[in-house]
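Severity: low
Component: inverse-folding endpoint
Summary: output formatting inconsistent between runs
Steps to reproduce: submit the following structure tokens with default settings.
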């Protein structure tokens, strides 16, 4: 069959245009998997630099965020306009629409590609951000002139209300720009909470004006352990280490997170894990005549004194400091720690024993509960609710406190049966500081083995609670990143990816849609290229190391 001149010319011109005419990524590759996807066969919407981002007044900051992300990812620089009665000049649009009528769930969004527009509808910041993240996954990770997005309807919302990631900045501290990058990682994966662990035995990482020695003394340790804390003999690097985030820096992070739909929960850990506190203010310790150092090693429980004494100065300190920090953070929840509080120091302390007797407390567990409820009261005065690690249930605690369970199913079930809302964060498999391989040459970790398939297989709701119709008490789950053995940004990334991606699908997608084989397909096809686009490190041998190996 002979080709006409014009047919040949069209083929040649089309071949030159190929680098710039790009079809969108498949909706089948979206991670985490959406609740509902309806593919339409009839057409597509073309997004090029003539298209506009049009936003309802509630979503102005998110429109700017979309513009920035789309430009970085594709090179397309779209103009941003508020939605007014003026007829738009562009022929195609990305519309961010506030809709409290058809959107009937918190954090829900719909994404519709039809006619001349891509339209994302939501009734809150989270919903619009998640719709934007889904849309960004439909665009390629390369510079383009235009992208053709096939018509589609997506309806999506999370399975769990709480979807968190934690970062310990005490054992090792990270620059402000990395904290922002970490928040970007959360937003992409549709997490909604950043748990910022700010104080512990090894340092105090937030500016406190009312007790300045928390920063001049408590934020600095004279050196840091080398190797594992169980190694003998212990070795140290001899280098002073520390620092803290100023209030201005904290507010900068809070504002950055707010645009991306991320709530921030600060953690000030008491009444144990307080060595940095008593180093700065020895009068708050069970041995006030002792000069304490900020801890230079890990694993303090029962090995070195790190608890607060129940005395008037201590409770004044707690009220002042917790309320000062509460004034910074807008989110309603505040984490007070409460874990690994060794009772041996209170048992050996005359003042603590007298306090237990005078306040008719049953024992040292009752004293721990007293601390928790006092701080809960201080925070309530600022409109805050309390979260604590599951050990705070050792005493008779009221059910207003939200429990973060780092133990196993047993502890989570017990908390739920006592009427507490529970965030499941079990060490196995959601401690991302644990090993993800059994390779003896892998980078040092504390212990454990949490491969990515174990994370993906995890379900936050124990079967026992489902059978007893108590699953409503499990509000979500969280991945934890403790940094005793994570001293760099690169290693944080190496330890969270791809486990964080697996957890995102556990917490977002319907349980019946989980499919590990398909998850691995999407991981290799679209998510790992995104890690590369971010210049992020990640664990590459996730297929080699599984639960069974």
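Observed output (run 2 of 3):
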């Amino acid at each position: 069959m002979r080709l006409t001149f014009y047919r040949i010319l069209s083929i040649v011109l089309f071949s030159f245009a190929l680098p710039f005419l790009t079809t969108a990524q498949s909706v089948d590759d979206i991670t985490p998997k959406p609740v509902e996807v309806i593919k339409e066969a009839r057409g597509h919407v073309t997004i090029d630099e003539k298209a506009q981002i049009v936003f309802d007044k509630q979503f102005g900051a998110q429109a700017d965020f979309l513009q920035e992300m789309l430009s970085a990812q594709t090179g397309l620089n779209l103009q941003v306009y508020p939605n007014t009665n003026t007829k738009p000049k562009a022929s195609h649009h990305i519309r961010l629409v506030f809709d409290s009528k058809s959107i009937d769930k918190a954090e829900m969004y719909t994404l519709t590609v039809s006619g001349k527009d891509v339209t994302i509808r939501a009734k809150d910041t989270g919903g619009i951000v998640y719709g934007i993240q889904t849309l960004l996954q439909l665009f390629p990770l390369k510079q383009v002139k235009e992208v053709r997005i096939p018509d589609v309807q997506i309806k999506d919302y999370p399975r769990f209300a709480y979807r968190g990631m934690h970062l310990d900045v005490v054992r090792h501290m990270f620059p402000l720009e990395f904290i922002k990058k970490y928040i970007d990682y959360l937003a992409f994966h549709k997490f909604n909470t950043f748990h910022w662990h700010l104080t512990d035995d090894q340092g105090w990482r937030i500016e406190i004006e009312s007790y300045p020695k928390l920063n001049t003394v408590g934020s600095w340790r004279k050196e840091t352990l080398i190797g594992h804390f169980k190694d003998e003999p212990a070795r140290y690097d001899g280098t002073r280490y520390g620092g803290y985030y100023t209030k201005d820096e904290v507010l900068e992070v809070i504002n950055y997170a707010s645009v991306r739909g991320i709530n921030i929960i600060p953690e000030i850990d008491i009444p144990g894990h307080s060595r940095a506190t008593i180093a700065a203010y020895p009068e708050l310790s069970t041995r006030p005549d002792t000069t304490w150092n900020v801890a230079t090693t890990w694993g303090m429980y029962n090995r070195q004194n790190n608890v607060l004494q129940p005395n008037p100065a201590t409770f004044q300190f707690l009220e002042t400091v917790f309320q000062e920090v509460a004034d910074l953070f807008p989110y309603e929840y505040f984490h007070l720690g409460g874990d690994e509080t060794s009772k041996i120091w209170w048992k050996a302390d005359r003042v603590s024993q007298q306090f237990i007797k005078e306040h008719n407390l049953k024992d040292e567990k009752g004293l721990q509960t007293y601390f928790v409820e006092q701080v809960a009261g201080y925070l309530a005065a600022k409109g805050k609710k309390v979260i604590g690690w599951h050990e705070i249930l050792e005493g008779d605690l009221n059910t207003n406190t939200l429990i973060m369970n780092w133990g196993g199913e047993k502890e989570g079930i017990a908390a739920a049966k006592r009427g507490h809302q529970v965030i499941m964060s079990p060490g196995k498999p959601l401690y991302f500081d644990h090993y993800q391989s059994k390779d003896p040459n892998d980078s040092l970790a504390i212990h454990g083995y949490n491969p990515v398939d174990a994370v993906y297989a995890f379900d936050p709701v124990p079967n026992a609670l489902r059978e007893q119709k108590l699953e409503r008490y499990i509000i979500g789950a969280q991945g934890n990143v403790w940094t005793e053995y994570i001293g760099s940004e690169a290693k944080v990334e190496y330890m969270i990816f791809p486990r964080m991606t697996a957890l995102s699908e556990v917490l977002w997608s319907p349980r019946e849609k989980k499919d590990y084989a398909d998850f691995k397909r999407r991981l290799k096809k679209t998510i790992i290229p995104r890690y590369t686009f971010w210049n992020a490190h990640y664990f590459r041998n996730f297929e080699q190391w599984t639960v069974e190996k």
